[in-house]
Amino acid sequence: MVKGFSKTGKTTTVTALIKELRKRGYSVGTVKDIHYQGFAMDQPGTDTWKHTGAGAQRVTAMGLKETDILFSRPMDIKAVLKYYKEDFVILEGDGGADCPVILTARTPEDIEKRMTDRVIAISGIIASELDTWKGLPVIDCTKEVEKMADLIEKATAKEKKEADVLLTIDGVEIPMVPFVKETLKNVVTGAVKALDGYEDGKEIIVRVKG
Fold this sequence. Notes:
Blueprint: E1 2-4, H1 10-23, E2 28-32, H2 47-53, E3 58-62, E4 67-71, H3 77-81, E5 88-92, E6 101-104, H4 108-114, E7 119-123, E8 132-133, E9 136-137, H5 145-162, E10 168-169, E11 172-173, H6 178-192
Parallel strand pairs: 1-6, 2-5, 6-7
Antiparallel strand pairs: 3-4, 8-9, 10-11
């Protein structure tokens, strides 16, 4: 996740990371969290807008160059990420996901106000003035995006190791981003913790048939 106050360099950081990760051969998806109260992708007067107004709960616009699936309701990040299978999904903005964070800032005060224990690095405009901040690396993604991508690879590998979850359907493995793996792990662990025979760190296998 790349988060920070407005105009601190979030989008610049995200686009630089997308290019670097793609250059390394990864598939990349993004989610943009928009807090503007009046935001709507679909606009009044369009045919799809009329479909929604008539009561359709999901509308798809199929064009020559893109396909847009519109949901006429807000969705939390867990629901959104179910539609992603990319190697990396970068969230721009504070979408509520529990994942490693790159914090963008203009000033040390910005950092103090948005700091959490999930922040692994700092970037954005302040990166032109600082190299580190209280032990955290400060990286200018317009000049040193390779360093940030290296850090992301390491952080993701750690998350994957901590949330080592395999999901198969009829023997076919279903790809999941680290956040979804961690969520599934927490749900299953929480359900079986109280049962006799449960031990921390032991492998849990659940099979559902039918």
